[in-house]
Amino acid sequence: MLSLPQNFAMIKRQIEHQIRKKIGMGKAIIIMGARQIGKTTLLRQIFGEDALWLNGDEYEVRHLFAHISAVRLQALIGKHSTVVIDEAQRIEDIGLKLKLITDNLPKVQLVATGSSSFELANKINEPLTGRKWQYQMFPLAFAEMVNHHGLLQEKMMLNHRLVYGYYPDIVNNHGEEKELLQQLSDSILYKDILKFDNIQKTDKLIKLLQALAYQIGNQVSYNELAQLCGIDGKTVEKYIMILEQAYIVFRLKPYSRNLRNELKNTRKIYFYDNGLRNALIADFRQVGMRTDIGALWENFMISERVKYLHYNGLWVNSWFWRTVEQKEIDYLEDADGQLYAYEFKWNAEAKAKVPKQFAETYSNAIYTVIHPNNYESSHFLYPRY
Question: What pTM was estimated for this model as a whole?
Fold first, then answer.
């Protein structure tokens, strides 16, 4: 059984270090990320029980902020030097309320978390312009787990991670993964997505999520998804945007510079966590029994890359590449003018060759095939730039 420390946030070293540096600088600290990835646990490690802790999921807290004023805020906060508001997006006009605190109580360190950028980011961007530091958290990462218990141990867990993912509760509760993932998917679906007033076709959204889960690693067409789910293309695009802003999925655009036959208008959509993806389609078969293992491997590697780039402040542009003749590169990065091309192969013995058109057109690109025998040493999950 794999067991993390009870307070697993000790392994969120990069983001913890960044947050600690910003304490007391007169700006709000905003942490975004899906539910149950450890935002509150991390903040309790940083600020302890001396902070004033408020939860926007609670009716009493939302009611308290309904008619708040600077005088009432002062009375509420009292002698606390730090105020933490969890799930702040649930509070009406939260951007103005946060601005009220930062403007009138400059010695108080304000911290807010949100599990939906659709709600929180849209509400705070204008009121808190120039008044906030904003960070994003993800499920646990391969690099974090290596730091926790070593490379060998984490490599031994690879097949498990491909099926069950990296949500902290899943990592910490061996043998209960299926039940916990099903509960997690229901929680995210009903608390952060379906509660929006403008989402009325619950069955359509669930069908869309499942369709996306089956198509990871493939190009998706909004029109085809619309026909499959029985909704129009604009609704599909809106729903996918909401899924992105709830930290369920993310999109990759196609790379197109020189060739007329390069695809320009399609997208690839990936899940931030393999376990959540598998829960949505109720498929927890082990690696040796799966026909989608190549897609799971690709999703795992690209989602891990997203985490690594974000936590280490590495700014790159990311794409995939494909032509109408179906010649393709799984993943591209442009870093400081250097183009990197990656292919993901679950079978280390499978033949992989850079497409001739790509090699001739982008002759400066560095091409790498990543498989289970070399992924930890490929620089994909460790610094290169």
Answer: 0.89
Dist. CA 226–CA 50, nearest whole Å: 50
Helix and strand numbers (H, E) in the chain are 17, 12
In 3D space, the residue among 219, 215, 358, 384 whose CA is nearest the CA of residue 305 turns out to be: 384
Would residue 290 be called left, alpha or beta, if left means φ above 0 and alpha means ψ between -120 and 50 degrees?
beta
Give the whole-angstrom CA distance, residue 341 versus residue 368: 6
Task: Give φ, ψ of 248 to 5 degrees.
Answer: -95, -45
- Between CA 358 and CA 258 the distance in angstroms is 10
Each of the 385 residues of the chain gets a pLDDT tens digit; together they read: 444 444 444 456 678 888 999 999 989 999 999 888 889 999 999 998 889 999 998 999 999 998 888 888 889 999 999 999 999 988 888 888 898 899 889 899 999 998 876 566 666 767 788 888 999 999 999 988 998 888 999 999 999 999 999 999 999 999 999 999 999 988 887 766 766 545 666 788 889 999 999 999 888 888 889 999 888 888 888 889 888 888 899 999 988 776 665 555 678 999 999 999 999 999 999 999 999 999 999 999 999 999 999 888 888 999 999 888 888 999 999 998 899 999 999 999 988 889 999 999 999 999 999 999 999 887 788 665 5
Distance (Å, whole) CA 122 – CA 69? 22
Where are the strands (E) in the chain, listed by range? 28-32, 52-55, 82-86, 109-114, 132-136, 219-220, 249-254, 267-271, 317-322, 328-335, 338-344, 366-370
- Yes or no: say if 92 and 57 are a contact pair by the CB < 8 Å rule: no
* Alpha-carbon separation of residue 20 from 106, 141, 353 (angstroms): 17, 21, 46
**With contact defined as beta carbons under 8 Å apart, do 355 and 327 qualify?**
yes
Which residues have a Cβ under 8 Å from the Cβ of 258 and sit 6 or more positions away?
Answer: 361, 362
